[in-house]
Design brief:
With about 270 residues, this protein is of the alpha/beta class. Helices cover about 30% and strands about 20% of the residues. The relative contact order is 0.10.
Length: about 270
């Protein structure tokens, strides 16, 4: 429902990445998968999730509760071997990669890092004109990294009109979790770190007991990882005003924002 309210289409989803098998992070999955099937989805879908997801979906399918009729590539992670060798590449397209690492929650949980691949340098329009490249499709070909041949036979290489390659953007997702080294590694130099901030420091013992982080701890993770911006979320329902959490985080990491339903943040 939130995808629909946001004006997006589930049919464009290429991957779903589940953090852990607690209901508030997982129970909506069968309905989403089934809805796409009923909408005649044909494109393959990658699903990355903790071990146990396949058994769960198979049971729901046998009970005629979950219905999937399109290619579903399910990758499960868990167990001691993955914890000992924790990072795994779980998705790759022409534009970006996604890696996962285990976090520190009450049950097995995964964090994710989406990293855009290196992008071509900025297009030098003035230089292209000097070289006699006509405006139009040839500009796009050069921007895509392809050489072009002009009407006089000259071949123009992309390097002649493009600046230095630019690093892609990075988004990291770490929840639910206590503060841990893998969260820092996933968040290194991220443009946005999305991190849970369930409690304030006043409830730090309770936070640790239930496998969560405080707003201050989320800020410390962002600071230690040299992230550019922090988006805190997963607030306990006891906080009717999340400014308490936001202020606590900003005292350590000023570039902190609080998530809310259907809010938009620029990457």
């Amino acid at each position: 429902m939130q995808i629909t309210r946001a004006g997006l289409s589930p049919q464009k989803l290429m991957g779903i990445f589940i953090s852990h098998l607690h209901g508030d992070h997982f129970n909506g999955l069968p309905g989403l998968l089934s809805s796409m099937a009923l909408d005649n989805r044909e494109k393959p879908l990658t699903l990355v999730a903790p071990t146990g997801t396949r058994e769960y979906l198979d049971l729901l399918a046998s009970l005629k509760i979950c219905y999937v009729n399109y290619p579903l590539n399910l990758l499960e992670f868990g167990g001691k071997s993955f914890v000992e060798q924790p990072q795994a590449l779980v998705y790759e397209s022409s534009r970006f990669t996604v890696v996962t690492r285990p976090l520190d929650h009450r049950i097995f949980a995964l964090g994710y890092r989406l990293e855009e691949k290196m992008k071509p340098g900025r297009f030098n329009l003035e230089r292209a004109r000097e070289l006699g490249v006509p405006a139009g499709p040839l500009y796009s070909q050069l921007q895509s990294g392809n050489a072009v041949t002009l009407s006089d036979g000259r071949v123009i290489q992309p390097a002649e009109v493009l600046g230095e390659p630019r690093p892609g953007k990075i988004i990291s997702y770490c929840l639910d979790t206590r503060p841990c080294l893998n969260a820092v590694k996933l968040a290194e130099n991220a443009d946005w770190l999305i991190h849970e901030a369930t409690f304030t420091e006043e409830q730090i013992e309770e936070s640790h007991h239930f496998g969560h982080s405080t707003a201050a701890q989320a800020a410390e993770i962002a600071d230690g990882a040299r992230a550019k911006q922090l988006l805190i979320t997963h607030f306990s329902s006891r906080y009717t005003d999340v400014r308490l959490l936001l202020d606590e985080s900003r005292a350590i990491f000023p570039a902190t924002f609080a998530a809310e339903d259907l809010a938009e943040f620029e990457v």
